[in-house]
Design goal:
Elements (H helix, E strand, L loop, with lengths): L10 E6 L3 H4 L4 H4 L5 H19 L3 E7 L13 H6 L26 E5 L10 H8 L3 E7 L1 H14 L3 E10 L3 H11 L4 E3 L1 H10 L1
Helix pairs in contact: 3-8, 6-7
């Protein structure tokens, strides 16, 4: 598929949940032994594209999964997540904390949006800030492919954003799950590689 006609100035790299608590060895998932080599490699893979967009007046937008502190500081955790990730505790994914922040290799985002569910659009201000910024094209990357990435891509599609998912810019906890999720997104959006997008932007 040929590249998008949308100008770089209206294009954003949308980084889904690439936070210290997910990716860094000292984060909540790392301390619990929950990780994957493919996930750990993503920041370095995506940094050249993020840097190029910054140089060309494009956008870098980060979504941050958030556990909202409730009474006494205890995080509000959905029952399904508590069952899946019983290690999550007070201070994990807390707004303003180190673990909640975008990983250093991809700093600094032009826009950041807290999210509380898989989709970055669900009950957040993401669509509002994208429209205000004049962003029409989304290059979606992050984790996990079958969760936050897939949910966000599908919602971007129904909101008529020009959406591309970067197949080598996202990952899941197994390669098989990742590939199945990417295949399921092909009818919904463009699927492209990081190098392809870099080449298109440099040629524009």
């Amino acid at each position: 598929m040929i590249g998008s006609a949308t100008p770089v100035e209206q294009t954003a790299l949308l980084l889904v949940d690439l936070q210290n608590d997910f990716v860094h060895p000292d984060g909540a998932y790392g301390r619990a032994g929950q990780g994957a080599v493919e996930i750990a490699a993503l920041p370095a893979c995506l940094a050249p594209l993020a840097d190029l967009l910054r140089r060309r007046d494009g956008w870098v937008v980060s979504t941050q999964f958030t556990l909202v502190p409730g009474k006494g500081g205890e995080p509000m955790i959905s029952p399904h997540l508590r069952q899946l990730r019983p290690f999550l505790a007070r201070g994990d994914f807390q707004p303003g904390a180190w673990g909640h922040q975008l990983v250093d290799a991809l700093q600094t985002a032009d826009l950041s949006v807290e999210k509380i569910a898989y989709s970055a659009f669900y009950m957040t201000r993401l669509e509002w800030v994208l429209r205000k910024a004049g962003i029409r094209r989304l290059l979606v990357a992050g984790i996990v492919t079958n969760g936050g990435v897939a949910s966000t891509v599908r919602e971007a599609h129904v909101r008529d954003f020009d959406t591309t998912v970067l197949h080598d810019g996202c990952a899941a906890f197994t390669r098989e799950v990742h590939e199945t999720a990417i295949a399921a997104l092909r009818p919904v959006c463009r699927v492209a590689g990081i190098a392809d997008i870099i080449a298109e932007i440099e040629a524009s």
